[in-house]
Amino acid sequence: MDLRSEKIQRILSKYKFHDVAVEELQKIHRIYPGMVPSTGTYTFTDSTQKDLLKLIGNLPVQYEGRTYNFPIQLWLMDSFPFTPPICLLRPTANMVIREGKHVDAGGRLYLPGLHNWDYPKSSVVGLLTEMIAKFEEEPPLSSKTTGDNKDPHDLLAFVSNLQINDGGIRHHDQPINKVSVIGGGDLGMASVMSILSKCKVDKLVFIDVAESSTKGGSTDLEIFNLPKVEVSRDFSASSNSKVVVVTANAWSSEQSYVNVVQTNVDLYRGIIPNLARLSPNAVMLIASQPVDIMTHVAWRQSGLPPTRVIGAGCNLDSERLSHILDINLNTHKPAWVIGELSDNKGEPTVSHIKTTALLSRSTLLLSGIMCQLIL
């Protein structure tokens, strides 16, 4: 694979894992020499743009005894190969996208290999092989029909997608204010209750992650059967969320934040890519500890623009400091703590503060952020 052009070298030099990325590109060329590297500007769903490397080529697919070449392009994120590529079809003027299980109306591909991406176990070579197999089962492109031969069933399918009511016609895909909270425990439950009380949401999904140490709470929500709340253990329930709050945590009181980082990174590997795939236009709000590090991890694993992966920061510590100053100095002024939490978990030394009160204040801040994101 020729990577010597000035444009490719300039873009590739900005990749976080340059040497590993080059090695992976050479592997791709050996197996799929038809995938040609190029450069371009990728536009994310929030209209932000980034200069990236992309692979363009045709995949030969056998279908009903004939060979078809399906044009595709793979956008390689700057954290490649640790982040999966964004895979798109490139239909020509006489082709039409067939929306299905593994492709949406815009031509973006969703495959198990992308959902479960885990480098070095995962690779683009394996992804392309999987892509061919899926295309042979269900071709994602077909030839356009002329206006005279247009299938009348297309009109029936369109009509069946419409809902007639007193207000006129509304499409089923009209966006709603949907928020998903991922991870149980006190923080997850408090976030759910705070969102319901302060934010205007059409639907709230609570997903209790089995691997998280912050389990629990889902049974209570199921018992009370709160309106607009769906309790699930399946990530697919979070699809098309406007905001996704992640409180899942593998931390326990016996571990320091430093020691638990790798455990949380491994936990996130099974959570974040799925959430990003199911809600590609969402804003992620990260509350797992240590929050600054896990926010960076979530950004890398999701492939989302940095403007849409937000950490809760040191809001809790700031609230603690403000509370202590109020008690001891009667200041009634906001105070801010800037920087990562320490191994002693930021416990105040001047005064002991009840955990429930602090948790309530912290989740009020989180819900305040979420309400602004939803509006």
TrEMBL record:
One BP term from GO: protein transport
InterPro entries: L-lactate/malate_DH, Lactate/malate_DH_N, NAD(P)-bd_dom_sf, UBQ-conjugating_enzyme/RWD, UEV_N
Domain of life: Eukaryota
Residues covered by the UEV domain: 2-145
Pfam families: Ldh_1_N, UEV
Molecular function in Gene Ontology: L-lactate dehydrogenase (NAD+) activity
Coiled coil: none
Name used for this protein in its record: UEV and lactate/malate dehyrogenase domains
Lineage: Eukaryota, Metazoa, Chordata, Craniata, Vertebrata
